[in-house]
Amino acid sequence: MWEWLFSKDNYKPKKDSDNFMDKTINAILKILSKIKRESNYSKRFVYKLNPLLKVIFSLLMIICISISRGYLYTISIMTFALVLLSSMDTDNIIKILKMAVVIPIFTLIMLIPSIISGNFSNSLLIVIKIFTTLLIVNILSITTRWSQITKTLKLFYIPDIFLLIFDITIKYIYILGELSLDMLYALKLRSVGKNNHKYMSISKIMGNLFIKSRDMGEEMYSAMECRGFTGEYKSINKFKFSFYDLLYSVVSVLFILLYFLIGRM
Questions:
Q1: Gyration radius from the chain CA atoms
Q2: Which of 148, 188, 204, 235 is 20 to 30 A from residue 102's alpha carbon, by CA?
Q3: For the chain, how far is it from start to end, CA to CA, in angstroms?
Q4: Which whole-number Å values give the CA distances from 185 to 21, 180, 189, 192, in the listed order?
């Protein structure tokens, strides 16, 4: 009667490929890694610069680059951006260069007809402007936390509802991303043998995430209502101003003033 308990189980599940699951997990991890910043930033001065100054001067430099007409000014700003880049950590330098090189190469390919027709100078100037702009934006993004950018936007008198949506959206993307990772790991661990319907699991995961996000949204609304939230987005922490901030401000102002001398040539 109990002989089946002592019989050897010779079941061997068929081998299955996990490429789809692995690619999906890696894609989600890449997105989450871009949102989350390390709690301990590097001690190099670029990471410690005042976020307000970085946002202001980055925007002004991008505007000056966009409306400039000559090579000399654009290359001077690019040199300044490369100097800032060289003072960052090696991993971040490689990451920024990868992002800043791909799009200019694609732009250069798109401008091949213009180059063939003899408009080489302006086409090359456009590529240099795009490369420099990407350097400035990525340096700002990687050396500044999302919370600091939100506080900076508050000082620019951006509407509170926009800041609230911006902040909550980033946090919810990260939270829901972690939930989706947990479900994908659970699905991968529970998949025995060959499963030809893995693609169908994505729609189920999306459905569960939608229900979870709706429940979390209702809970957050109730919590904000109980705490008397009036829609005003307050920034408690204050920015500090150091010697490096002063040096960065002076150099940035000089490059912006340089536009009026050589930028329109």
A1: 26
A2: 148
A3: 97
A4: 9, 9, 6, 13
CB atoms within 10 A of CB 81: 25
Whether pTM exceeds 0.85? no
Mean pLDDT computed over 26-43: 64
What CA–CA distance (Å, rounded) separates 202 from 24?
9
Two tokens at 40? 């301990």
Token reading at 178: 């972690």
Q: Provide the residue type at 126 as one letter.
A: I
Q: Rounded CA gap, 125 and 111, in Å?
A: 11
Looking at the chain, how many residues does it have?
Answer: 265
What was the pLDDT predicted at 265? 63
Angle at which helices 19-35 and 160-190 pack, to 10 degrees? 150
Largest CA-CA distance found in the chain, in angstroms, rounded: 97
User: What does the alpha-carbon distance between residue 109 and residue 51 come to, in Å, rounded to a whole number?
Assistant: 35
Average pLDDT over residues 241-254: 87
Exposure on the CB side of residue 9, measured as CA atoms within 13 A:
5
* Residue labelled with tokens 């996990």: 18
CA distance 114 to 153: 39
